[in-house]
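Section 3.1: Structural characterization of target chains.
Under the original work plan, the team committed to producing a structural model for every single-chain target entering the pipeline before any wet-lab resources were allocated. The record below documents one such target. The sequence was received from the expression subgroup and is listed exactly as submitted; it comprises 433 residues.
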Amino acid sequence: MTMTAVAPWTAAAFEEFLANRQEPVWLTERRRQAFATYQKLLKQPLDPEEFKRLDLRALRPEKYSLITTEQAATLSTLMADRAEFGGTVSHIDGRSVVSQLRPEYAALGVVFGSWETVLATRPEILQALERAVPADSDRFSAWHAAFCTGGTVLYVPRNVELSAPLYSLIGLSAENAADLSHTLVVLEEGASATLLEETCSDSATAAGLHVGAVELLLAPGSQLRYVQLQNWNDKVWHIAHQSGRVARDASLQWTVAGLGSRFAHIHQAIHLDGRGASAEVNGVTFATERQVISYYTQQDHHAPDTRSDLLYKDVLRDRARVVWRGMIKVDKDAQKTDGYQRNDALLMSADARSDLIPGLEIEADDVRCTHGATAGRVDEEQLFYCMCRGLSRSEAMHMIVEGFFQRIYDRIPVELVRETLSQAVQKKLGLGD
């Protein structure tokens, strides 16, 4: 198969990109504004608070291109074949390959499909773009907004509750393929849904680039469970802005898992916009070899009587590195805020490194906000104790790591996610299939 690709990221490439797309004027104009912002931000340094601990010199954007021919791929995923889903959307190299939804859900007015399908049938839903991730956040968000291709859109009407989880897959197949997909979730008042999303590579050796965005928009009284399991191969650069806006009395449970990639940096923000809004964030990271996995998390309280609870657990082995910079921000009017953040790292080798930095910015005077971070080596006495009782060293290590992650597992109500994470940990440790 002959593969063609768009010349990467120049003004000429951008015009060619627009010429090959049939999109409404408002979206084309939005792209043009984003590209102008991208060109401007390329000349400016990145925020040192977010990026000073990260080395991006090895990232060569010109190596990666948007793929314009369909690729045949059989992706091996962690979740796709393990449960019955209410709907499935899959993308490979930025192109939609599967899009389906249970008829009974569609009859209720639920929209779940690819970016292109929703743009053709319900373009008004996409007008919500950039409500949570503005294009001018930094050069990566602008780059994404200008060249975004593919992605998953979920819209749930007022008071509709989806009992079965939905599944979204983002895959890379071609060598040096770039994916700039976008996930948009819009829940109307009183709606409820669960979306499980996974990223993975078709090949263990194909280099790739993902510059993505996730926007979760929750209206008053709605409930969303969102899971993203990042499992790229170790040749992929993964950079994304992910943000949720939670209105009055709405509830967001957000689980992230960082397993793959060569380099990953996630800017994750939660905005609690209405009285009584709440968010729980769970994070599981397992980094090996020379992986670098980084998170910049924000819990922004904009209204009174809001609650946020973030708990990350990181395991590092070999020469891997995890960076986490967390911040709870409380506006002046956000009285009675209850905010919590914690990140714990377990180091399995002397050369692994974790940089964990929590922070608080509080303008209100009637709040309860706490934070913490810990890092430590695996206790050799614990290993010795387990091995004295007949376990091999690898089995003992698995038991310790599983115990370390258990608190996260206990916070996740979806059994499929708990089982998938547990099996992924075993594979990282070299156990199981």
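The chain is about 20% helix and 40% strand.
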